[in-house]
Amino acid sequence: xxxxxxxxxxxxxxxxxxxxxxxxxxxxxxxxxxxxxxxxxxxxxxxxxxxxxxxxxxxxxxxxxxxxxxxxxxxxxxxxxxxxxxxxxxxxxxxxxxxxxxxxxxxxxxxxxxxxxxxxxxxxxxxxxxxxxxxxxxxxxxxxxxxxxxxxxxxxxxxxxxxxxxxxxxxxxxxxxxxxxxxxxxxxxxxxxxxxxxxxxxxxxxxxxxxxxxxxxxxxxxxxxxxxxxxxxxxxxxxxxxxxxxxxxxxxxxxxxxxxxxxxxxxxxxxxxxxxxxxxxxxxxxxxxxxxxxxxxxxxxxxxxxxxxxxxxxxxxxxxxxxxxxxxxxxxxxxxxxxxxxxxxxxxxxxxxxxxxxxxxxxxxxxxxxxxxxxxxxxxxxxxxxxxxxxxxxxxxxxxxxxxxxxxxxxxxxxxxxxxxxxxxxxxxxxxxxxxxxxxxxxxxxxxxxxxxxxxxxxxxxxxxxxxxxxxxxxxxxxxxxxxxxxxxxxxxxxxxxxxxxxxxxxxxxxxxxxxxxxxxxxxxxxxxxxxxxxxxxxxxxxxxxxxxxxxxxxxxxxxxxxxxxxxxxxxxxxxxxxxxxxxxxxxxxxxxxxxxxxxxxxxxxxxxxxxxxxxxxxxxxxxxxxxxxxxxxxxxxxxxxxxxxxxxxxxxxxxxxxxxxxxxxxxxxxxxxxxxxxxxxxxxxxxxxxxxxxxxxxxxxxxxxxxxxxxxxxxxxxxxxxxxxxxxxxxxxxxxxxxxxxxxxxxxxxxxxxxxxxxxxxxxxxxxxxxxxxxxxxxxxxxxxxxxxxxxxxxxxxxxxxxxxxxxx
Length: 810
Prior knowledge:
Layout: H1 6-10, H2 12-19, E1 27-29, H3 80-84, E2 94-96, H4 108-115, E3 120-123, H5 142-151, E4 156-163, E5 175-178, E6 187-196, E7 211-213, E8 217-222, E9 226-234, E10 241-247, E11 251-259, E12 265-270, E13 274-275, E14 278-279, E15 285-288, E16 291-293, E17 300-303, E18 308-314, E19 323-326, E20 331-337, E21 347-351, E22 354-355, E23 358-359, E24 365-371, E25 380-384, E26 388-394, E27 403-406, E28 415-421, E29 430-433, E30 439-445, E31 454-459, E32 463-469, E33 478-483, E34 487-493, E35 503-508, E36 512-518, E37 527-532, E38 536-539, E39 551-554, E40 559-565, E41 574-576, E42 582-590, E43 599-600, E44 606-611, E45 633-640, E46 643-650, E47 655-659, H6 693-697, E48 711-717, E49 730-741, E50 744-745, E51 754-760, E52 771-776, E53 781-783, E54 787-788, E55 794-799, E56 803-809
């Protein structure tokens, strides 16, 4: 039987009547509530005493209260006598309308009051009121609702309200909204809202109790936005998708779970509208707080021409790609999990828009705070022609690569991967190909992978890597091939490669700088550099205990190795292989205990110069007497409307001024927890300035810039420098400074902000000497120049960099 008295059974008072037939009569109101106590006298309208109610079907009753799922139903149309058949024998019933007046039981109004339920369609902005204010009547299931909408005169944007205890058995087949079906073409944007209370006149939603369907929900040939929220579709077995939306408008999915389709996909969202292979749609796609798990094809498949945003969503344990996105617009993932794919990648993201092998779209990709683990092939596969940013991502234990990024040279877009872990993958930890712009790797752990830890191919821009760990990979720790720009690697550990080198760089047109790189106990060479057209420098490198050479260099030009060591290798400490000719400058380079030659080169084509320099990284000259021992910093805060600044001074007058950064705040940080301790030894809590919110709030006329949330501004007077100053520069004074956001370095600084670094001009300068402000870029000192203040007492420079600044005398 059909569910036609759902609302009748839903009301707790009527349920009580069904269970306690000793109560002679009870009032039911049109707004879904009950009115007053059971009457003591016969009401104006009652069921005839001589008319016995038929016994309810056996399957509709159970011990205790009858639930909506167990309730009996009768065929449409709803008639009062049929409803009364559900009332136990001897029970009187009163129906009250919205005005509080009794409604004759013989009227259609009484019947509609008793059967108010779901689903119903109402115009957008209208609370659900069945058969009023433009809403449809309540229907037993989606089949009846679709027939009503298709055959009626409804139009415009609307919402379908579905009760949280919706009886999915009422839908005898798949739920299909076809825009070509009769009057459905007159409808525009449509929302399916689950979790409704079911009470007429109320739009109350229980987000903890979504509505449950067990058949396909599909929108096809639609021409407006489609939104689905607070809904569960489980075990809807169908060859295509349990949830399938095809429209030319925006698509929004919120708090939706689609699982258990053992024959097909979980969800397909398509607003691409392809024509001759080109997307013509313009809608965006948004998915939040949802799950797409344990389906036999993709968990979530999106094909769009607009921006795709996915947040707080899981797509796990699907047979093919758990998450697959193809679009011409931006792609943004935040707090997404795509794990356990049985026969494909965890997530496949593609906004390349390839044409004749060339990527022509320009959408960016951002993946933040997400996990792609234990998948059959790659954890994350990405194809894009735009900017790519991957932050705080984990891609572990995948059957192929952890992260595989393909971008396209002709676009010149950058790729940034930071604060990311990619370990224990069967193939590479990270593989990037064809990067047209710069590639930046920061705070990355790519260890214990079956092939390379990190492999970088065909990069047109510069490559910068810092604070990278690539240990115990089967092949190279880091391999870089065929690059056109410069390469800078600092604070890198590349140890224990099972088969190949720790660091391997081949075929590079630009300059190479390796600073604070450790490559030990690798099966072949610790560091191998071949075919470099630009300059080559090794600084503070340790390449020891390797199965072949510590450092192998094959170049035909000059290079420098400074304050480094290559000891106890099975092969040579340093092997130089030059055909045309080269010159090696070895400054405080230690190569001892090697089984081969300590330094192996052909002296007919290569010239080697060895020299001992000071590698202690201490200041090369003492501060002037008036400044010696002055390590205290004090803070002067001034934040004026339109000119938001924070200044840090020492008692000598040196100053760092932070522009448009007043809103940053932090506690005092232990220097040992910073990223800089290895390159900036010394210092302590006494030399750190922390700007507290409380301090800032007490300043009159303060305008806070809180766009980036909690952060901090730190400065430190340095006892030691990260590296000796270049020839021709003498030390005068130095600062270390940084801006923190939630304990992390904010680098780069926000737009329209920066630092003004100001040093007091030393009184001990000799005539003719010049000043310069140097900044440490992690590999070398960069001369930022500078200028005198108007009064001539200070030398200063404005920059967007953070880190170590030195006032030097030339």
